Amino acid sequence: MYEGNYLAERLCTASMGTQNNPFLYNHQTGEKTTYRTFFSNAERMAEVLVAIGVEPGDRVAVQAPKTIAMLELYVATVLAGGVFLPLNTAYTPAEISYFLSDAKPRVFVCDAEQEEQFSPVAKEAGVAKVLTIGADESGLLAELRDAAVPGFKAVSRGPDDLAAILYTSGTTGRSKGAMLTHQALASNAETLRDTWRFNADDVLIHALPIFHTHGLFVATNITLMAGSSCIFMSNFNADDILGYMPEATVLMGVPTFYVRLLNSEGLSKASTNMRLFVSGSAPLLAETHDQWREVTGHAILERYGMTETNMNTSNPYDGDRRAGTVGLPLPGIEVLVTDPATGAPLPQGETGVLEVRGPNVFAGYWNMPEKTAEELRDNGFFITGDLGRIDKDGYVHIVGRQKDLIISGGFNIYPKEIELLIDELEGINESAVIGVPHADFGEAVVAVVVAQGGAETSAADIMTGLKDDLARFKQPKRIDFVESLPRNAMGKVQKNVLREMYAGTFR
Ligand code: AMP
């Protein structure tokens, strides 16, 4: 099926001949979607996309609630030869405006309930068509899909053609669109399917967002490529997950999931028949790994990846899953540690910048040739910006982030973006934004602010000033006023000093 479309062909192979098998169980309605229904809906949606003018290479942007219709749109976009561009549901109209102006999609699909707010934003950015998806699977896109006929002939696309663009946060406040090819997505999902032994009998609990690489590509592509089933939850809920475990086999989560589940009654009994727990997107504390093993008897399998590269390393399926490490490079993927100053490879065991090369690596940043040249070497290695080392057994340890990235609840937040917004507010002199360890979110955003002499401004004023321009997950959990920021001899703000000062705040 779907011959000539590199990714689509591979996504449907495992379920061919077993099209009546369930692909998705809808957590909200209890309904089951078979592979046959899913692909025929995706084909009809592809028909709709082409009818409204989507041509090969056109971007299809979407900011909508997590629904099966949104997954159909992903596969439909691939079938139509388009480039899928999902956006975080927390982004405000001001943020969406930037993404639409930068990516210039042919279509923007938004939440049916927010159409009034987003339509003018899309129009201003020059987007030709706005469609909607509702949280209840309704909306204009579903109506058009239901009026179309299945049997769409997949548009021909090769391994090097783009299948998706996922935006990451930018250190200067500008997000960068990582361009992902058909081959990058297909090869990584195939590798993970085999490494983690996914097969048609697996039932994955899917509680991750689908605008991010983890929930969209890792969870969804692997399920499709193995012909497995998936319990599709609109968001994380510890009690519901425990309720599903006896009929499921795998859970994929961010560390926050595991911390919360450990606080729930009945985890030990519920997890008896599960075969695999995967964690990633942020560091899993060794303490959480150990507690989990004590309570459930399972060692969480931690892996490491990023938007630009899909997954790079994984602890072994068979063999030692070591707490505090992200495991070994995946087959076909090379990981190198280099000197942050010179870029030269470092001797084994030393800490430096992690660089990655393989078929999984992205094709560059959308519209940013200079950024691409800075981070993607001519020899194919991508400079991840993560700091780490590789031990004598080949396990990769991540020790920090070169660029002060904050990861809260699995989402990346770059301090610079928040600092720029705070500094613009009335009565503010300057600010420093840091990530502080948080028992639930991994890290929490803290803003340390210096007010202008004599200005009467409060934390509440700052929150009011940020609300409309900043997604909720990026908004500070604490704002403190100080006389001055600590600085080193070179005049640089010492964020490490601030991090130490606030280290115990959310423990
Ligand atoms: P994203 O692009 O949102 O997937 O974020 C990627 C970043 O998350 C990486 O560059 C790492 O800094 C971090 N990350 C992902 N997985 C892990 C992990 N298992 N341990 C530590 N950091 C991780």
Description of the structure:
With 507 residues, the protein is an alpha/beta fold. 31% of the residues lie in helices and 25% in strands. It has 16 helices and 24 strands. A nine-stranded mixed beta sheet has the order 2-1-10-9-11-12-13-14-15. Strands 4-3-5-6 form a four-stranded parallel beta sheet, with helices on both faces. The chain has a four-stranded antiparallel beta sheet with strand order 16-17-18-19, with no helix packed on it. Strand 18 (382-390) and strand 19 (396-401) form a beta hairpin. Helix 1 (6-12) runs parallel beside helix 7 (182-195), helix 7 packs across helix 8 (213-226) and helix 10 (255-262) crosses helix 12 (286-296). 49% of the residues are buried. Residues 168, 213, 280-283, 302, 304-307, 326, 384, 386, 398, 401, 407, 412 line the site of adenosine monophosphate.
Quick synopsis:
The chain is of the alpha/beta class. It has 16 helices and 24 strands.
- Please describe the biggest sheet, giving its number of strands, its sense, and whether it closes into a barrel: 9 strands, mixed
Percent of sequence in beta strands: 15-25%
Bound heterogens, unique: adenosine monophosphate
Number of helices: 16
N-to-C CA distance: 52 Å
> Would you report the number of β strands?
24
How does the helix and strand content classify structurally?
alpha/beta
Low-confidence stretches: none
The Rg value, from CA coordinates, equals 23 Å
Overall pLDDT metric: 94
Percent of residues in helices: 25-40%
Shape: globular
Strand order of the largest sheet: 2-1-10-9-11-12-13-14-15
